[in-house]
C-alpha cells in the first residue's frame, strides 16, 4: 500500500536566522517529522493551485501569522498583528478546494483559525478582547504544558487523546470566535477558549496548541499524528486515489 501524501501549506515568513532578505516559503521541520514518522509522505506547497490536489491526499495548515480580519468581515484592531492577505487567500482556497473534493484538512494553531475562517467562522483578534480569557502567548515555554484543555465527551479528538483533560503548550494571542457551520468545538482551555475543532467524521481536525513541539515526550501527541495519517490513507483509499 502506498503512503498517503499530505501537503503542508508553506509559511511565507522569513526565517529569523536568515541573512538574506529574499521572499521565503518554509515550514517547521517538526511537522514533517511528525507526519513522516506516522507513515506519510509530505510536500510543502508554496502557493495553492487546484492541481496540487491531484497528488495530495490531505491539506495541513501550520502555525504562523495572524489572519487578515477582512477575510472574516472585520476591520483590523490595533491589537491584530502581522498578516499576509495573499498567503491567507491561498490557504483558504486550499481548504475549500480540499473539502470540495472530500479530502481531509488538518490544522495547528493558526491552522485552526484559518480552517474556521475558510469555512465561514470568525476570530477574536486578540484574547484581551475575549471576556474571561487569560493570556495564551506563552512563547518562552513551547515544550511544556502551561494550561489545561478539556475534551468534549464523544468527540473524535477525545477518542484520539484517550483522556478527558490534558496540559498543553500555548503560543497564540488569537482564537476562534464564531464557529463555522459544520464544525464543532471539541476542546476548550481552562478559561473557555476554543482549543479544538472537528467535523462529524474527523476528516477535519484542528488544534490550537502545538502538538509537534510536545510529540517527543507525549504519546498522546503521537496518537494525534497517527490519526491524521491513518484518516488520510483511509479516505484516499475510499476515493480510489
Q: What tags apply to this protein structure?
A:
241 residues; alpha/beta; Rossmann fold; 9-stranded mixed sheet; two-stranded antiparallel sheet; 5 helices; 25% helix
SSE layout and pairings?
Blueprint (H helix, E strand, L loop, with lengths): L4 E5 L19 H9 L3 E5 L12 E4 L23 H16 L4 E4 L1 H9 L4 E2 L22 E5 L4 H6 L3 E4 L6 E2 L7 E6 L4 E5 L5 E4 L11 H20 L3
Helix pairs in contact: 2-3
Task: Describe what this molecule looks like in 3D.
Helices cover 25% and strands 19% of the residues. With 241 residues, the chain is an alpha/beta fold. The chain has a single domain (5-238), classed as Rossmann fold, CATH 3.40.50.880. Helix 2 crosses helix 3. The longest helix has 20 residues, at 219-238. It is globular and about 45 Å long. The mean pLDDT is 94.
CATH topology group: Rossmann fold
Overall number of strands: 11
Give the biggest beta sheet.
9 strands, mixed
**Low-confidence stretches at least 5 residues in length (pLDDT < 50)?**
none
Order of helical and strand elements: EHEEHEHEEHEEEEEH
CATH superfamily membership:
Class I glutamine amidotransferase (GATase) domain
- Backbone CA Rg: 17 Å
- Oligomer class: single chain
Distance between the termini: 11 Å
Shape: globular
Q: Any guess at the CATH architecture? A: 3-Layer(aba) Sandwich
Question: What is the name of the CATH class?
Answer: Alpha Beta
Q: Roughly how much helix do the residues carry, as a percent range?
A: 10-25%
Q: How do the strands line up in the largest sheet?
A: 2-1-3-4-11-10-9-6-7
* Derived structural class: alpha/beta
- The average pLDDT value, as a whole number, equals 94
- Contiguous helical run count: 5
Portion in strands:
15-25%
Amino acid at each position: 500500500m502506498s503512503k498517503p501524501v499530505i501537503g503542508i501549506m508553506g509559511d511565507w515568513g522569513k526565517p529569523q536566522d536568515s541573512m538574506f532578505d529574499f521572499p521565503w516559503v518554509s515550514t517547521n521541520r517538526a511537522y514533517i517529522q511528525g507526519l513522516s514518522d506516522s507513515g506519510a509522505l509530505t510536500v510543502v506547497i508554496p502557493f495553492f493551485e487546484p492541481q496540487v490536489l491531484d497528488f495530495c491526499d490531505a491539506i495541513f495548515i501550520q502555525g504562523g501569522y495572524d489572519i487578515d480580519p477582512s477575510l472574516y468581515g472585520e476591520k483590523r484592531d490595533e491589537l491584530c498583528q502581522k498578516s499576509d492577505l495573499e498567503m491567507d487567500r491561498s490557504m483558504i482556497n486550499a481548504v475549500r478546494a480540499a473539502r470540495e473534493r472530500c479530502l481531509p484538512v488538518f490544522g495547528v494553531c493558526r491552522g485552526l483559525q484559518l480552517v474556521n475562517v475558510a469555512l465561514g467562522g470568525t476570530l477574536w483578534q486578540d484574547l484581551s478582547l475575549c471576556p474571561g480569557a487569560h493570556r495564551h502567548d506563552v512563547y518562552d515555554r513551547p515544550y511544556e504544558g502551561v494550561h489545561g484543555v478539556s475534551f468534549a465527551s464523544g468527540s473524535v479528538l477525545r477518542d484520539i487523546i484517550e483522556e478527558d483533560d490534558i496540559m498543553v503548550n500555548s503560543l497564540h494571542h488569537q482564537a476562534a470566535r464564531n464557529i463555522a457551520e459544520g464544525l464543532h468545538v471539541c476542546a476548550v482551555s481552562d478559561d473557555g477558549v476554543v482549543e479544538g475543532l472537528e467535523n462529524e467524521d474527523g476528516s477535519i481536525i484542528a488544534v490550537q496548541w502545538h502538538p509537534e513541539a510536545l510529540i517527543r515526550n507525549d504519546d498522546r501527541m503521537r496518537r494525534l499524528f497517527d490519526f491524521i495519517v491513518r484518516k488520510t490513507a483511509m479516505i484516499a483509499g475510499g476515493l480510489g486515489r
